[in-house]
Design a protein that fits this description.
Layout lengths: L1 H19 L3 H6 L7 H7 L17 E5 L3 H15 L5 E4 H7 L3 E2 L8 E6 L1 H8 L6 E5 L9 E2 L7 H5 L4 E12 L4 H9 L10 E6 L6 E7 L2 E13 L7 H4 L11 E9 L7 E4 L4 E7 L2 E5 L3 E5 L4 E14 L5 H10 L1
């Protein structure tokens, strides 16, 4: 570095002497001076100036695949498609084990978005833990909750990376187990036993097929008793799933509502009803052993006398590239 500077300084002085046409003796008597950048760039060797690279806003993506051959095959294709635009690609723990890569927690992921490749089950399982927008991609099955098919995803990759998409909010429910005794309230502070947020439904079903289940629920101080296989509380998004099979009404996903549907009631006068989503529902297992199931994934077995509180939770954010016509999808997928 020192030799380079000396060369530049001497070169500037020699160039000045040649321009003035002076002798060698006079040239030695001229004091050294620093050569200007203008002189060096014009007459001398070019300087190499390093430019700072601008940091591109690469998106951070988490990929979640259905745990079968089709899901893993499509997730590899999706990874190759995304590598052209970003290197910040992560996989959930289950997918990473299959691909022999490092896994990442869905609950702790704070990137730009999550892509699920599979069907409604993969999307629901991810939505229980996710705190960022989700793009549900269908590869098989009905995929009623998915917003795009895999064969149409490639032409929207650039829009996805540049965030040229819409965010659609889906209502979710939260089920909290009421703590009545002091020891239960104390243990709750030590052990966190929270249920996942329900995007579809919260079902209270009988544990033993040969026994009926007694479930009561209170709305605005009014108590209702249900005797049979159980009771289900569903969101507008879940009204087309288990709720519809049990005889419940199909609700527009844009509505703020909760559907309450008795499951095969035994001489019960409680009929399916739709209430406001802002209501708080108190549920109690009056008799029998009950299985609490959240979207077909999470839950536990509880005994008679257990109480719960069901209310609206923060919505799930779903990525879509076009306006979703729910009724057209309903007719083509479930009716025709």
């Amino acid at each position: 570095m020192l030799n380079t500077l000396r060369h530049l300084f001497c070169y500037g002085n020699l160039q000045m002497c040649e321009n003035r046409r002076i002798s060698t003796s006079q040239r030695n008597s001229i004091p050294l001076r620093k050569a200007s950048l203008f002189e060096i760039s014009k007459e001398g060797p070019p300087l190499k100036i390093r430019k700072r690279r601008k940091k591109k806003n690469y998106p951070r993506v988490l990929l979640v695949a259905k745990q079968n051959k089709a899901g893993l095959r499509h997730i590899k294709k999706l990874e190759k498609m995304l590598r052209k635009y970003t290197d910040e690609i992560h996989f959930d723990h289950s997918t990473a084990i299959r691909l022999r890569k490092r896994g990442y927690s869905i609950r702790k992921f704070t990137g730009d978005f999550i892509i699920t490749v599979g069907g409604d089950g993969t999307f629901l399982w991810t939505a229980h833990k996710a705190n960022v927008p989700i793009l549900p991609v269908r590869i098989e099955g009905q995929g009623f909750l998915c917003t795009i098919d895999f064969r149409h995803l490639e032409k929207h990759i650039k829009d996805l990376v540049r965030k040229n998409y819409k965010i659609m909010e889906r209502m979710r429910l939260v089920c909290t187990r009421a703590k009545t005794r002091r020891i239960e309230k104390y243990m709750e502070k030590i052990l966190s036993n929270e249920y996942p947020l329900a995007l579809n439904e919260i079902a209270f079903g009988r544990k033993r097929p040969s026994k009926v289940l007694y479930v009561s629920f209170v709305i605005d101080g009014v108590r209702f008793e249900s005797v049979g296989d159980g009771v289900m509380f569903s969101t507008p998004s879940g009204s087309t799933a288990y709720n519809s099979s049990a005889g419940g009404s199909i609700i527009d996903p844009k509505l703020n509502a909760i559907s309450i549907t008795p499951l095969y009631p035994f001489y019960s006068k409680v009929k399916p009803m739709v209430i406001s989503g802002d209501k708080k529902i108190l549920v109690e297992v009056s008799g029998g052993e009950c299985a609490v199931v959240i979207d077909g994934h999470g839950g536990e077995y509880v005994k008679s006398g257990t109480k719960f509180v069901i209310e609206k939770a923060r919505p799930a954010k779903v990525i879509t590239f076009s306006e979703q016509n729910v009724f057209e999808k309903l007719k083509s997928n479930l009716i025709d």
